[in-house]
């Protein structure tokens, strides 16, 4: 392993952010280089004159095995002459210049009462037993020097303490997926992880380092979406391509929602399968119409369902220009998006919809839809999904039809 930070060529995410921040929160996937970034930051503040640094991990053993003696720990980076020594009896590391790093376990928040520091580094915050209490106690001990600061490194989990941190003033956020540090990992590790977990909520959290959460009020939950993934697709008696065209074309247009779905079965046993999310944007009319036509042919679909609130008959004309033979049915929204989506969300809750693949962007939109955090964003992918599954499963239009072979 390269011990020289400059030769290592750290990524932008691993370099301390500029500005007058109080907390640097580094979110990253497994093996993304979080520990190395934290250790190098500590080495930098020691070289800058810091004298007392708190080192906090889920347990004392984690402080020693990862933050201090690990391959990317404090005792294994930088020039040999400038590395600290570990004093096990006192649970601390001491640098040649006199600076001291004190080890603390997040299992004992009260152990941070009393001591004071210039800087602090907390590792794997999302795994701490009581993260909010430890962070609060730790921050109250940062009262030495001209500008005491805290760095927190962790693979994210949707815990309240972490969700509060990302919104706090004075917090600078960095993010790095595992892929950005692939050159320093065992050959094949990333490919194996992506093969096993890629696209899933667990993979996006543990490999991509993304904070996955269920906002309050959302119609879908991550648990529901994860549970609907299916490795096999049944024989489908009907397939549709649903399209939610953007309100305007051009480089600043919204996405065009394009979702392919099918269904099989009869009555209450009828099930829907989402086959593809082909949404994209910004989308010019000729481009999204061509993609709809391509999807129709690729999946041997029965019809195209197109929302016409924004363009009326022009939507049909644009689609027919791409393929004159497309069987287009225009639908008009007479109710709000949330009301239209509720029956479809209920189908997911009842286990009547499956996904034939991992559709990360669609899943994100689903799990934010209906929540205040979604703001005013246009849920184009969800709109297309709702039109497709409404046609297939809600009301009389969901009945199967004979398909000519």
Automatic annotation (TrEMBL):
Phosphoprotein listed as a keyword: no
Record carries keyword RNA-binding: no
The entry's keywords: Viral release from host cell
Family matches, as InterPro entries: P-loop_NTPase, Terminase_6C
Protein name: DNA-packaging protein
Organism, scientific name: Maricaulis virginensis
Chain ranges of the Terminase large subunit gp17-like C-terminal domain: 242-390
